[in-house]
Write a structure and sequence with these properties.
- By secondary structure, the chain is of the alpha/beta class.
- About 40% of the residues lie in helices and about 20% in strands.
- About 30% of the residues are buried.
Length: about 140
């Protein structure tokens, strides 16, 4: 939550002219979340919400496949790994909304790409991303 608060403070400071309608944290598969006890992206989103008052939408995208770890995969393998693992929830509607997708670490961008495409499918007006780290 603390890192989300810091991100939110920076957003208020540097992006005050940008209006976000909803924050969408990248979901974990329920089994992984149960094992871990929390979703780190959700925690980041909660911190951002606390400082920006932007609504969190953690129901529009679901992770339906418990995928393998992607740490040793290349971009092509990662895209294949996540392509069918995320789905839009029934009735998900982002029409006209500017959404902010939250992910903890970006390596190839495969997860963000798949989730952004789902947001486009739900008619999001625009999509932005925030992450805390980028692996090279």
């Amino acid at each position: 939550v603390e890192i989300g608060k810091r991100i939110g403070a920076k957003m208020n400071e540097h992006w005050s002219d940008i209006t976000f309608d909803q924050i969408i944290p990248i979901p974990l598969h329920p089994k992984k979340q149960h094992k871990r006890g929390y979703n780190q992206c959700q925690k980041m989103a909660e911190g951002i919400q606390e400082t920006t008052q932007i609504e969190i939408n953690n129901t529009c995208i679901k992770k339906v496949t418990n995928t393998d770890s992607q740490t040793t995969m290349n971009r092509s393998d990662r895209l294949h790994n996540v392509n069918q693992s995320f789905v839009l929830s029934e009735g998900a509607d982002l029409t006209g909304k500017h959404v902010l997708i939250i992910d903890d670490v970006v390596t190839t961008g495969a997860t963000l790409e798949v989730c952004a495409l789902l947001c486009q499918k739900a008619q999001a007006k625009s999509i932005s991303f925030v992450t805390i780290a980028m692996a090279m």
